[in-house]
Design brief:
By secondary structure, the protein is mainly beta. The radius of gyration is 13 Å and the shape is globular. The mean pLDDT is 94. Strands 2, 4, 5, 6, 9, 10 and 11 form a 7-stranded mixed beta sheet that branches. The protein has a 4-stranded antiparallel beta sheet with strand order 1-3-8-7, with no helix packed on it. The termini are far apart.
Length: 129
């Protein structure tokens, strides 16, 4: 599975961005696809997750109600719509895939690399006035 994140940029607080995760190499119908972010000097954290087949999903408390993950039904592309962005959302954002698991606080938590083993290059989101 290959993944490539894009769509990052500079946005003012309160603004919106949509990140894309283009995938190839395998059908992701049976994979959990997650978005993660890593701010400077901090550990990588799970942000959102979507599983097309088992319909599981996950959002970190810090983004709940502001970020929405979706999938284009005609493409193997996943999106992260980010609204009401805050300076603390500034980070490199990555998409990743995990086979054989559902989206949950466990699989998206501190030990996410146990399950998410296919990673794309990150895209930088900067929220600043």
């Amino acid at each position: 599975v290959q993944l490539q994140a894009s769509g990052g940029g500079l946005v003012q607080p309160g603004g919106s961005l949509r990140l894309s995760c283009a995938t190839s190499g395998s059908s992701l119908n049976f994979y959990a696809v997650g978005w993660f972010r890593q701010a400077s000097g901090k550990e990588r954290e799970g942000v959102a997750c979507f599983h097309k087949t088992d319909r599981s999903s996950y959002y970190a408390d810090s983004v709940l109600g502001r970020f929405t993950m979706s999938k284009d039904p005609s493409k193997n592309t996943f999106y992260l719509q980010m609204n009401n962005l805050k300076p603390e959302d500034t980070a490199h954002y990555y998409c990743a895939a995990a086979g054989g698991v559902s989206c949950s606080a466990v699989t998206m938590g501190r030990d996410h690399e146990t399950w998410f083993d296919s990673w794309g290059q990150g895209t930088l989101v900067t929220v600043s006035s």
